[in-house]
Write a structure and sequence with these properties.
This protein is an alpha/beta fold. The protein folds into 2 domains: 180 residues, Alpha-Beta Complex (DHBP synthase); 106 residues, 3-Layer(aba) Sandwich (Rossmann fold). It is built from 10 helices and 16 strands. An 11-stranded mixed sheet has the order 1-8-2-3-7-4-6-5-9-10-11, sandwiched between helices. The protein starts with 8 loop residues before the first strand and ends with a strand. Bound molecules: threonylcarbamoyladenylate (TXA) and magnesium ion. Threonylcarbamoyladenylate binds next to strand 5 and strand 6.
Length: 354
């Protein structure tokens, strides 16, 4: 049964120096089996007690998410690892040393105390220590283990502002902590440490090169950047249509001037057919488009700005009722891989060559 809360409390917290009274109240809600959405450095999370199977069931119900899609367990200190990890591989210690707290999630075999409801039936658990003072304080106040997927309704872009969480989950959860805009804007890098070679299952701010500098050999799941026939991404969540706006999104790739010309031609065609049109572009090209709604993600030179504003822009197209969207493409190097992975998924892997 889905539990509907008519009164979601929205409380403001200082993300660097959160009010202990507010954190204690939020932690108590989670300890009692309720749900609290909270800011992290990547995106907002929807938190419940990771060791309580009923809390995980509530998370799936609130998001409308398939329950075979496992949740990430968020911790606040290294001592929290031992009780939930059946093994702590050497790679995990090295990566934690290098990147935690931070936007990196690691998958290892789980112990009995982590319920299958939290891991979508898997024997492994995904773990992350977020780099966000309010999130870390909440994890401690909630007893040390918070299961938290991104705090969007299933299928919508992840929230980078508390207002996005309100849009999707108001009335379905007990509390939302508003810590302002997140810092990164795309979800954490996920690396699977259960195989012979550490494998990236979802690209994020921590790049393949950064992981290789610490571990040596690291590979990326080949299904991440292309539609592979019969290919099945290892992170169950990467299978679902995700990050997607309601309108139809296509990516246009090529030389800058040609991309602009091609997008304008496509926009004219769509408009002639009565479609409401949108363009996702950059500061450099902002003035050159003739669509109903044009959104810049920031300078092409600044991949951090592009990533931070991506989901907000996709949501704005929905709010504006845009039906046909064309997006400029980005380099797939470094952090660009994470941005292009999300854009490709949002576009159902449709790429138009300019
Ligand atoms: O940045 C983030 O990671 C955010 C914030 C809130 O921490 N969380 C987040 O959670 O993005 P979510 O649930 O939206 O995405 C988790 C992804 C899903 O694709 C899921 O399938 C995968 O992690 N995952 C979780 N546990 C796994 C496991 N044991 N094996 C393979 N994939 C797993
Ligand atoms: Mg998500």
């Amino acid at each position: 049964m889905e539990s509907i809360k008519s009164d979601t409390q929205l409380l403001t917290v200082d993300s660097r120096n959160p009010d202990p009274g507010i954190i204690a109240r939020a932690g108590q809600i989670i300890k009692e089996g309720g749900l609290v959405a909270f800011p992290t450095e990547t995106v907002y999370g929807l938190g419940g007690d990771a060791l309580n199977p009923d809390s995980s069931k509530k998370i799936y119900a609130a998001k409308g998410r398939p329950s075979d899609n496992p949740l990430i367990v968020h911790i606040a200190e290294m001592e929290a690892l031992e009780p939930i990890c059946a093994q702590i591989p050497e790679e995990m210690r090295k990566l934690a040393e290098a990147f935690w707290p931070g936007p990196l999630t690691m998958i290892v075999p789980k112990t009995e105390i982590v319920p299958k409801e939290t891991t979508g039936g898997l024997d492994t658990v995904a773990i992350r220590m977020p780099d966000h003072a309010a999130a870390l304080a909440l994890i401690c106040a909630a007893g040390g283990y918070i299961a938290a997927p991104s705090a969007n309704a299933s299928g919508r872009p992840s929230p980078t502002l508390a207002g996005h969480v309100m849009e999707d989950l108001q009335g379905r959860i007990e509390m939302i902590l508003d810590g302002g805009e997140v810092g990164i804007g795309v979800e954490s890098t996920i690396v699977d440490l259960t195989g012979d070679i550490p494998t990236i299952l979802r690209p994020g701010y921590v790049t393949e090169e950064m992981l290789q500098r610490v571990l040596g050999e690291v590979q990326t799941d080949p299904t991440l950047m292309q539609k592979v026939e019969g290919g099945r991404p290892k992170a169950p969540g990467m299978r679902y249509r995700h990050y997607a706006p309601k309108g139809t999104l296509s990516l246009v790739e090529g030389e800058a001037g040609e991309v602009t010309a091609r997008i304008n031609a496509l926009i004219s065609e769509a408009a002639a057919q009565g479609s409401r049109t949108g363009v996702l572009c950059t500061e450099e090209s902002l003035g050159q488009y003739r669509a109903d709604v044009v959104r810049s993600l920031g300078s092409r030179e600044d991949m951090c700005s592009i990533a931070l504003h991506l989901y907000r822009a996709l949501r704005e197209f929905d709010t504006e009722g845009v039906e046909t969207i064309y997006a400029e493409s980005f380099s797939r190097d470094g952090f660009g891989q994470a941005v292009m992975n999300r854009l490709l998924k949002a576009a159902g892997y449709t790429i138009i060559k300019a």
